[in-house]
Amino acid sequence: MDNPLIINIGRQYGSGGRRVAAAIGEKLGIPVYDKELIIAAAKKSGYSPEVFRRKDEKKRFFSFFSNSGIDDNEVFRIQSEVIRDLAAQGPAIFLGRASDYVLRDRRCLNVFLSCPLGLRRKYIAERRSVDEAQAEAICQREDKERENYYNFFTFRNWGVASNYDLCLDTSLLGIEGTADFIIDFARRSGFPV
User: Fold this and answer.
1) How large is the angle between the packed helices 36-45 and 72-89, nearest 10 degrees?
2) How confident is the model at residue 58, as a pLDDT?
3) Contact criterion met (CB below 8 Å) for 57 and 146
4) What is the pLDDT of residue 181?
5) Which of 25, 66, 155, 192 has a CA between 20 and 30 Å from the CA of residue 59?
6) Domains located in the chain, CATH noted
């Protein structure tokens, strides 16, 4: 396929991005890459997957103190190569990791998913078995780490609508409805769905 469907999904922590991506992947029969990118990047580099897990979507501004033997820039470079290699193989959905920027030279559907903090807080509290105050702190910390990572490596602003083709609040349509909406949007936008 010359121009396969590639969907890049940026998301707020706890907004349901992983579940939306999984629903799209299942409906369209295409692979979803999230944590799998860590394993692929580790294999490509020869480093332990744990090195990539610790640095996943995080930018440490003082990473030269790291004892992992690989810095954040090298992790981003390796992960970007893996994303480009997978995108060249056929249709795919990529979660986070600045994939919209990494694949900026090809036609992709770039989506950003959000959800009100109160709903994200409730979901994270249930999922992680913590109280809602702790869940809110987790959401804010994870979002800040994603924002720092994205902004540093892309010279753009994470979550800003002008960086994406479509921005959606997952609380309005739910997981399945959001997935269906993205598929319909892709179809109407001329992507091969």
Assistant:
1) 110
2) 55
3) yes
4) 98
5) 25
6) 6-188 (3.40.50.300)
Residue 121 · residue 14 · CB < 8 Å: yes
Structure tokens at 141: 């910390």
Residues 6+ apart with CB under 8 A from 127: none
Categorise residue 91: left if φ over 0, alpha if ψ from -120 to 50, beta otherwise.
beta
Residue 49 token pair: 């997957």
The candidate with the shortest Cα–Cα distance to 111, out of 26, 2, 27, 32, is 32
pTM comes to: 0.88
pLDDT at 55: 61
For the chain of 193 residues, list the mean pLDDT of each consecutive stretch of 10. Answer: 88 97 97 82 75 61 51 86 93 95 97 98 96 96 95 95 97 98 97 93
* Crossing angle of the two packed helices 17-28 and 170-188, in degrees rounded to 10: 40
The residues, any chain, with a CB within 8 Å of residue 166's CB and separated by 6 or more, are 109, 110, 111, 112, 182, 185
Radius of gyration of the chain (CA): 16
Q: Quick one: pLDDT at residue 61?
A: 45
Please write down the long-range contacts of 121-127, taking CB distance under 8 Å and 24 or more positions apart: 121/14, 123/14, 123/16, 124/13, 124/14
Two tokens at 5?
Answer: 């469907």
